[in-house]
Structure formats: structure tokens, C-alpha cells
Amino acid sequence: MKFLIMEGLSILERTPMIVSLLVKNLPDSWIFQNEGGETWNVFDVIGHYIHGEKTDWIPRMQIILGEGDKHFVPFDRFAQFKDSKGKTLDELLEEFARLRKENVIKLRNAQLDEAALSKKATHPELGEVSLSELLASWVVHDLTHICQIARVMAKQYEATVGPWKAYMGILNR
Amino acid sequence: MKFLIMEGLSILERTPMIVSLLVKNLPDSWIFQNEGGETWNVFDVIGHYIHGEKTDWIPRMQIILGEGDKHFVPFDRFAQFKDSKGKTLDELLEEFARLRKENVIKLRNAQLDEAALSKKATHPELGEVSLSELLASWVVHDLTHICQIARVMAKQYEATVGPWKAYMGILNR
Fold it and tell me: Looking at the partner chain, which of A144, A162, A171 has a beta carbon nearest the beta carbon of B154?
């Protein structure tokens, strides 16, 4: 399926609301427990979304469309552990919603045509990538972490569902 | 984690809105393509939620709490292929929201205490199950299919993300 800017926008602009509906006003046990080991809890995932808004998607679009050096700065997958410290979940949700709103406006204002979408830059590990691949990845990244949040939450009831665990694929991943 | 009725209710009552935000007003390509083979598309999943509202969760709660035979009727995992025929996605989303609202009211009105939550009935395959296990499974089932919808949608961009596919766990499941 081709990347279409209007489709991408209509998914990207809904994500903060979807995430907020999933996690807001729930007891801490749903938010601060992870899937075990080094996995992330819901709070970590929201912080990761925020770091993406600040350093990944739109800044990389600007590198691709700009006149300067066409190399991306590596993305820090662990920035949220420092950046989210001392903040509440509601503060993170508000920050994510605000940054996403600003970034969707920047994306809309860029008025990307086919020529712009096919422009390229160099990813530190993946090599040459195009703007349409970057923006499609932004959409998929949103969906990935919605799925992750639902899974992390579901796992809190792993024992609570009793014998139904056998039917719940999400609990066995 | 223990099943707490107020937590369960607060998740169950949000699901139709979350699902609607995820899938409403998108082009058909996002809604009617599956993950390949016999897998379900987004439209199928919404129909499956509806069939659960009609025949699974609250009807089974009523069997557990009732005075009659304590055996569940088997759940039809494929009913939506017949029942959703000829309907639009918006019709399914409205039907799901309406049925869920009614069922949340029934759950609230049941005023379940610990004694009620520990009552049991017999599942056709899983054997003896309690009301708290049934209700926790309802919550996990909601989350499972939110994750599935996000994954099915993400996979539509599998080729579109280019080399980023390597980073997207959701595309490699």
C-alpha cells in the first residue's frame, strides 16, 4: 500500500486521544507494571512517544527536506527513563498530545508532494531511506505502541483470567 | 492482580470509543485487508466484539448468577462472517457501542460482591470457571482485540516503511 499523506495524518492526529483513553484514570498497578525483566511499562511507552515527537519524526523530515547534512542523528530508545522522571502520567499524556498537535501542523504545512516524499537521507543503521518511508514508519510506530500498551495492560490480569489464559494469545507472547 | 469490578468497568466502558477512534473514517484498504490466509480484518474483529456482547460475557454472567443450569453454551468464533454481512463499518461501531453501554449498565446493576464474584459455572472446554475469571477475561479480550486491530492496520504498511521493517516487531509477528 502506498503512503498517502492524508491517511497518515488522520491516523497520527488520533493517537494521543486513543492512548489517553486506554490509560487515563486507572490505578497505578495498570501503569507502572511491565511485562517482566527489562520490558517497558505504560508510563515508559508514553515517554518514548514524547521523545519521538521531539527528536525523531519531524526533525528527520526537516533533515530530509533541508539543505544541510543529510544524516540522521541516532534515536535514543532509552531517553524516557531520564526525561519522564518526576512527571505524572497525566503530564506525559498532555505533553504528548501538545507535541503531536504541533507536529501534525508542521506536517500539514509542509504540503508534501510526490517529489518531496521521494527525497532521501541516511539513517545511521538502515542506510538510505525516503521521506515516505519515514512517515509510514511514524504511523506504524504509533500502532505498534498502541498494541504494546494493550498487551502490557492485558498481562496484569494473566493470573486473574484463570483457565481462559489458554485462549488469550496476547498473554502467551 | 485481583479482579476489581470498578477497574474492570472503567476499561470495558471505554473500548467502543477507543476502537472507533482507531478505525473510523479511514479508507477501505485499512478496514478490509487482513494479515493473510484465514486471519481477520478490522471489520471482522468489530463483528466479533458484537457477537461477544450478545452471547458471551453478560449472558454467561447471568448463567453463573442464575438458578438454572450452570453450563455455558459454546461461543461461536465465526458468527460475525454471517451477522456482519451487508452492514457498514459505521453500523457495526454503533451497534457495538450501544450493546456495550447496555451491558455495562447490567454489570453495574448486578452490584457484585466477593461472594457473587466467586460463584462458578462450567465452560464447555475449560471446565469450572468463576465469575471474576469471566469478567477479567472480558477485559483482557477487549485489550487483545485492540492490539490485533492496531497490528492488522500496521501490516498494511509493511512494504511502505521500507528498511524500517527491521525495527518494527509488530510487522514480524
Answer: A144
Q: What is the pLDDT of residues B66-88, one digit of tens each?
A: 999 999 988 888 898 989 999 99
A44 CB contacts (<8 Å, ≥6 apart)? Answer: A34, A80, A81, A84
Give the DSSP H/E element, type plus range, for residue B56.
none
CA distance A87 to chain B (A): 23
3-state secondary structure of B127: strand
* ipTM value for the complex: 0.96
| Chain B residues close to A137, C-beta within 8 Å | 161-162, 164, 167-168
Q: Would you state the cell numbers that stand for residue A143, as one nine-digit string?
A: 500502532
Instruction: State pLDDT tens for residues B19-68.
Output: 999 999 999 999 999 999 999 999 999 999 999 999 999 999 999 999 99
Of A27, A156, A161, the CB nearest to B137: A161
- Closest alpha carbon within chain A to B12: A22
Q: What does the buried/exposed string (b/e) look like for A83-105 if buried means 16 or more CB atoms within 10 Å of the residue's CB? A: bbeebebeebbebbbebbeebbe
Which of A10, A129, A164 shows the shortest C-beta gap to B162?
A129
pTM here? 0.96
Q: Counting beta carbons within 10 angstroms of the beta carbon of residue B110, is it exposed (0 to 12), middle (13 to 18) or buried (19 or more)?
A: middle
Q: Give, in order, the Cα–Cα distances in Å from A26 to each of A62, A142, B87.
A: 37, 21, 34
Q: Which of B60, B112, B2 is nearest to A159 (CA)?
A: B2
According to DSSP, residue A75 is labeled: P
Q: Give the amino acid at B91.
A: E
Q: Which residue of A has its CA nearest to B2?
A: A160
